[in-house]
Write a structure and sequence with these properties.
188 residues, Pnp Oxidase, Chain A, 8-stranded antiparallel β-sheet, 8 strands, 37% strand
């Protein structure tokens, strides 16, 4: 076992290892949550972790993440059995070269959230989540003009989930090197 395993296993779940990368500014965290379209939610079932990509919206006055998905499936089952989840959002910056291979890296910003997830059953909560998702992703379209508004019968087709945020932490790594560059996959 690594000599640091015990040390880091005792840290609080939202503590960041490298303090110089830690972001405590809540406005910074909320901004990243607001502009990032995709997150990864981690759930657990029978000692097995599962990571699932989701489109999501952060609703500030509820201090919660909303997403929609299937009413059946592994993520739903995992949440039913264990509502404790973590969510990560990530924005990749530029690649950072160096003279030593071990010092190569990349600029990034990320937020990790810890909380409890549950499917919403109240019509008001379901509509709040769906309308917030529509506003985030399809803000250029107007309900009732460009598409028909969400109807009660539409609500049986999808599950709307809310993650009540218990804790969060932000991280940012930015190099001041002038030879940074954008990632481009080889062969594309």
């Amino acid at each position: 076992m690594n000599k640091n395993t015990e040390k880091y296993s005792r840290k609080g779940r939202s503590e960041v290892r490298r303090e110089k990368s830690a972001i405590q500014n809540e406005e910074w965290i909320k901004s990243l949550l607001t502009r990032t379209p995709i997150a990864t939610i981690a759930s657990v079932n029978q000692d097995q972790a599962f990571a699932t990509p989701i489109s999501f919206v952060y609703v500030e006055d509820k201090n919660a993440i909303y997403f929609h998905g299937a009413k059946v499936g592994r993520l739903r089952a995992n949440i039913d059995l264990n509502p404790q989840v973590s969510v990560n959002v990530f924005e990749m910056g530029q690649l950072v070269p160096d003279e030593k291979a071990v010092e190569f890296g990349l600029d990034y910003q990320s937020v990790t959230i810890f909380g409890k997830a549950n499917e919403q059953t109240d019509k008001t909560d379901i509509l709040l989540g769906l309308e917030a998702l529509m506003e985030k992703f399809f803000y250029m379209y107007e309900s009732g003009k460009d598409y028909s508004p969400i109807q009660t019968e539409d609500l049986i087709r999808t599950g709307v989930y809310k993650i009540e945020i218990d804790e969060w932490s932000g991280k940012e790594l930015t190099s001041d090197r002038t030879d940074k560059f954008d990632y481009k996959p080889k062969g594309f």
